[in-house]
Amino acid sequence: MTSAYNIHVFFSDDTYFYIEISENIWKGNGSTFNGIIPTNGYHPLWALTLSVFGEWLSGEVSTLLFVRGLSYLIYGCGVFIVYRYVRNSDENLFISVALFPISLLLAYTGSTGSEAFLSFFSISLVLLLFLNQKEEGGWIQHAIFGASLGIMMLSRLDNVFLAGFICIFSLRRVGIKAVAKYILFASMLVIPYLIYNIFQFGHLTPISGFLKSSFPVVGPNVGGMSPIHTLLVVGILVLLPVFLWCAEDTKFRDSILALSAASIVQYGYFFAFGKAASWYWYAVLASLTAGLLTGWITSAAVRRFRQSADNVWLRKGVALLLGGLIYTAVASKALEPKHPMRIAAEKFDQVAPPNSVVYVDDWPGQMSFYTDCRVIAADGLTNDFSYLDRIKKPRRFFNDVGVDFITISSTGMTNTVKISNKSESVHNISIGMFKNYKKIYKYNTGNIRLYRKFNLPGEETLEVWSRN
């Protein structure tokens, strides 16, 4: 369905972070995006998974095809697990309706290559194991469930909200001793990662999470919340009372309650403490929850008001319709043109000396993947915590890391680098830190010159300034 030309449309810029970091891990360069500055700005399990297959991350098109195939394979396993999770219900109809939101979210929003697919798989696995909980289960059963919670949190760190609610609802079902074992085995996976962060980077959480969150200071992220994410959470709030009124299966009800509570709290956290846009892949948990609620209510309504003979054709019709809509979404996505930054990166790659160090104001993933340059992101998401202090003295930082070029895109964010032309040899750089939007550091960079200016589709531009 997709050619070598347009497969990139299924990848957001952030997904290239994982490809570049995982390739460096596999090559033995350590956890780094550019081979210069170490970083922990990613969810660990997906990066480690890709690094296992580092040999397949060297080519351009072959890498994207492999990552996309691996993502869909993981998603397929998650779909099978969700099917097992709802197998005692009106399966065909339920599974079709329930998986539609998550399928559309993952297929159409450029989430391919991100941690979203692995997060979906791990959440599905936890749900299935939750249904099969037994108080009298031995250490092996408790270890498996605890490990699944740990895997889920490592696949996406804010899945900790779901892990917490799963443990709360497990107290009534299996008792405090079993839950304590869950926490023990989950901690055996998560705590080493946290210790690694502290000793290697001096901070408990990844730098990306630190920069995107104002916790514990509340700062409502009114304009940054994804409309899709908001719509899904509103849907959960509307559908949950209907589900609770109809649901009789205690096991299924508890798992849906845990999902719903975690989705609402997760969204509330993003809203209260978020300092960046809430992207589509943040909504995996809410999408699955809304889908399961919709699927259960739809299936229950059909069973109540239709004859079983009619249900067969209805189920097949719904499955065919939703499958067709997903296919259409994927097909239409494949027709999108190249991203302007990919075009800019390919043009810049033709004129830039190999192994150049480029400081970019935005879109570092594509600039790194489609060039032979080493890319440093101004926003700090793929750097380390020391960068936040070092960049306060830009000239010293640029000299220390050997920056050759600085890029300025017309789509660049206002909280990264901007250059204003004061004279032929003196320019003023204003660097706004994610840590504090209002604090701007100004520094005279000295002799820099305009190296190239690329005109891109949609009246966008990319300026490349040389420091040599």
Count the E strands.
8
Detail the poorly predicted runs: 1-5, 413-444
User: How would you sum up the global shape?
Assistant: globular
How far apart are the termini? 44 Å
Structural class: alpha/beta
Helix count, per DSSP? 17
Number of domains: 2
What is the string of helix and strand elements?
A: HHHHHHHHHHHHHHEHEHHEEEEEE
- The helix content is 55-70%
Q: How many strands, what sense, and barrel or not for the largest sheet?
A: 5 strands, mixed
Radius of gyration: 24 Å
Strand content: 5-15%
The strand line-up of the biggest sheet is: 2-1-3-8-7
Q: Please, what is the average pLDDT?
A: 79
What does this 3D model show about the protein?
By secondary structure, this protein is α/β, with parallel strands linked by helices. The protein folds into 2 domains: 7-334, no CATH class; 340-466, no CATH class. 58% of the residues lie in helices and 10% in strands. The protein has 17 helices and 8 strands. Strands 2-1-3-8-7 form a 5-stranded mixed beta sheet. Strands 4-5-6 form a 3-stranded antiparallel beta sheet, with no helix packed on it. β5 and β6 form a beta hairpin. The model is unreliable at 1-5 and 413-444 (pLDDT under 50).
Overview in brief:
With about 475 residues, this protein is α/β, with parallel strands linked by helices.
Name some characteristics of this structure.
468 residues; alpha/beta; 3-stranded antiparallel β-sheet; 58% helix
List the helices and strands and how they pair.
Blueprint: H1 13-27, H2 44-52, H3 61-85, H4 91-108, H5 116-131, H6 139-155, H7 160-174, H8 176-201, H9 207-212, H10 227-246, H11 250-273, H12 284-305, H13 308-334, H14 340-351, E1 357-360, H15 364-369, E2 374-377, H16 387-390, H17 394-401, E3 405-409, E4 417-421, E5 427-433, E6 436-444, E7 449-456, E8 460-466
Parallel strand pairs: 1-2, 1-3
Antiparallel strand pairs: 3-8, 4-5, 5-6, 7-8
Helix pairs in contact: 1-2, 3-5, 4-12, 4-13, 5-6, 6-8, 7-8, 7-11, 10-11, 10-12, 11-12
